[in-house]
Structures are given as structure tokens and as C-alpha cells.
Amino acid sequence: MFDIFNALHHTSYENTKVVILGQDPYHGPNQAHGLSFSVKPEVTIPPSLKNIYKELHDDLGADIPKHGCLTSWAQEGVLLLNAVLTVRSGQPNSHRGMGWEHFTHEVIHQVNEKTDSVVFILWGRNAQEKESLITSDKHLVIKSPHPSPFSAHKGFFGSRPFSRANQFLQQAGRPEVNWSIPPVMNSTM
């Protein structure tokens, strides 16, 4: 089992510039490793992440990586947090309502209290349920449908979350996120 708290290990509170909130971990064998939407380098890129990469390419012209590990984003200050941190194998949303929400609500609350402006990217209805925890006049909230193949064509594609996040950070006097994903030389996860 990989560290369910990797989001907090890789992205310090002080360094957090963007929060990408997911629903729950991937539920396939060896997929989840504690970062929302991310998989270990040797794992096949899931369809939702393929759609994120397509939007990243269309938004910023970034190269589409050959792996699905988003650790570089976490190290850039992107908190890749799921609302629920565990899931039963093969059963999406199976641990919803079991208590993780209290923990992740507190994480969101603490990030919301930062004096620095933060971008919250809420993809899908489950993530958007957390919007009430965010003080929108201090932070930027970017909402769109989930990048899943079932909903990506309903407004995720074309939403330009990456350039919008960087534009806001720049206007707030904070460093932009380097959204480029480098090749993985060796697995650190």
C-alpha cells in the first residue's frame, strides 16, 4: 500500500499555491499512490488523466507525458488532494461517508486560512461540494465538469484551468506553477 498522505508529504502548507481536489483514489490494482489523479510511473495512464493531459496540451501547449506521475506538480506547490483518501479495491466511492471528509475538510479549511492567495480547482460535482469551505474573495475557485470520459466533453475541455491558475497567481504576486511534466528517470514513489 502506498502512502495515502503523499499529497501532504510532497506539498508543504507553506508552498501550497494550487489545490486540485479529487473524489477518491483510483480503485484499480497499484494505481493510487496518495496524489489525486496521479499514478505511479509504471502504471497505465487512466482515462481521466489522459483527458487532463489533453487539456494541459490545449491550454498551454505542454507536451503530453508518457507516464501518469504528477509528483512534479506536487513539488511545484500543487496539493493533489482527494476528498476521501482510501477506497476498496474495484469499488469507486466505497469509503465515502466513513470519516475522511472531516480530515480533508480541515485540510481545505487550513489552506483557506493562508494569507497568500490560492487557486482551488474543483473538477466534478463531488469536488464542487467543498466550495463552501473556500473564501472566494481571497482565492480563485475554478470549477468544471470532471475530466472523466463520461463528462469531459460537457465543459472540462476548453476550461483552461492551468493558464487561469497561473494568471491569477501572477496577479497575486506569487510564482506560477510549471505545469510541464518531466520524464521519469527512476521511480520515487
TrEMBL record:
Q: Where is the Uracil-DNA glycosylase-like domain?
A: 9-169
Which residues are the active-site ones? D24
Residues annotated as coiled-coil are none
The UniProt record lists the keyword DNA damage: yes
The record's top EC class is hydrolase
The entry lists its GO molecular-function terms as:
uracil DNA N-glycosylase activity
Claim: DNA damage is one of the keywords in the record: yes
Q: For this protein, what reaction is catalysed? A: Hydrolyzes single-stranded DNA or mismatched double-stranded DNA and polynucleotides, releasing free uracil
Primary localization class, coarse: cytoplasm
Top-level taxonomic group: Bacteria
Biological process terms from the Gene Ontology for this record are: base-excision repair, AP site formation via deaminated base removal
Might you give the EC number(s) for this enzyme? Answer: 3.2.2.27
The UniProt keywords, alphabetically, are:
Cytoplasm, DNA damage, DNA repair, Hydrolase
Q: Which GO terms describe its cellular component?
A: cytoplasm
The places in or outside the cell where this protein is found are: Cytoplasm
What function does this protein fulfil?
A: Excises uracil residues from the DNA which can arise as a result of misincorporation of dUMP residues by DNA polymerase or due to deamination of cytosine.
Cited PANTHER family: URACIL-DNA GLYCOSYLASE
Q: Which family does it belong to?
A: Belongs to the uracil-DNA glycosylase (UDG) superfamily. UNG family.
Q: What is this protein called?
A: Uracil-DNA glycosylase
The scientific name of the source species is Alteribacillus persepolensis
Q: Gene name on record?
A: ung
